[in-house]
Every structure is written in C-alpha cells, then in structure tokens.
Amino acid sequence: MEFSQIVKRLEEIAEKLETEDVPLEEAMKLLEEAEKLYKEGKEIIEQSKKKLEEVANDIE
To answer: Beta-strand (E) ranges in 1-60?
Structure first.
C-alpha cells in the first residue's frame, strides 16, 4: 500500500471513530487496522529517510 493510501485510510478510521457510535467490537477491529497501517507507514518513512541519507552522503 502506498503512503498516501495509508494516510487516507487512517483518516477514514479516525473520522468514523470520532463521528459514529461504533460498537466496541468494530472499534477494536478498526484500532487494530489503524495500528497495522501506522506501522506500515512508519516503515515507509524510515526507508525513505535512509535513502535520503544515502543520497546526501553520496553528494558530499
């Protein structure tokens, strides 16, 4: 999944949890999904940061 898709889905989850009366079981599933998406997004950021550092080192 691309980073922009992750952000969009996390926003959808947050909005649903904030604006709807979500049953506890569904809320737990949404939170589990959000946690997985967060970790995936964080990994993408870490990989991008590493690539940028490598490029910066090559330029120096």
So the answer is: none
